[in-house]
Write a structure and sequence with these properties.
With 150 residues, the protein is of the alpha/beta class. It has helices spanning 14-27, 46-57, 76-88, 106-111, 125-144, and strands spanning 2-8, 32-38, 63-73, 93-98, 114-117. Strand 3 (63-73), helix 3 and strand 4 form a beta-alpha-beta unit.
Length: 150
């Protein structure tokens, strides 16, 4: 199984980038990972432009998980159960999508197989990226019974 992280813009803050890379390295012990950053857009129609870029970067056969404020909230253990189900289904590639500042276009939302929310709280995109990767790492430690999650 492969996790592909597709999001709008780069992680510019070096501290968040360091955390992102650290958790990505940890996660890569359990699953192949790839990050795909699409260029952000400005002005009217920016979410549609970014949406087209996001869709163009996705494999047609990929299982898509959209991170969105309106998504389903779940605990770390629930996420671990979902990851286990995806493994049991033998999904080859799971693409996690984080949109830009104005969210994602309706076409991206329609493409998603699952829509999740990280929290009722609002995070910067750089924080959301780190939290997502850390929670996926945590999910694998739960699945494997490692003590990290405690």
């Amino acid at each position: 199984m492969k996790f592909k992280f597709t999001w709008v813009g780069k992680t510019r803050d070096r501290n968040w980038k360091t955390l992102q890379d650290d958790y990505l390295q940890r996660l890569s012990h359990f699953v192949n990972c790839e990050i795909n950053e699409v260029k952000d857009a400005q002005g009217p129609g920016s979410s549609d432009i970014e949406g087209n870029r996001l869709l163009a970067s996705m494999n047609h056969s990929s299982f898509v998980v959209l991170l969105d404020v309106k998504g389903r909230m779940l605990s770390s253990y629930d996420l671990a159960a979902d990851v286990q189900k995806w493994q049991d289904r033998a999904l080859k590639e799971i693409t996690f999508v984080i949109g830009g500042a104005n969210g994602v276009s309706s076409r991206v939302a329609e493409r998603a197989d699952v829509t999740l929310s990280l929290s009722f709280l609002t995070f910067t995109h750089e924080m959301a990226r780190v939290i997502l990767i850390e929670q996926l790492y945590r999910a694998f430690t739960i699945i494997k019974g490692f003590p990290y999650q405690k």
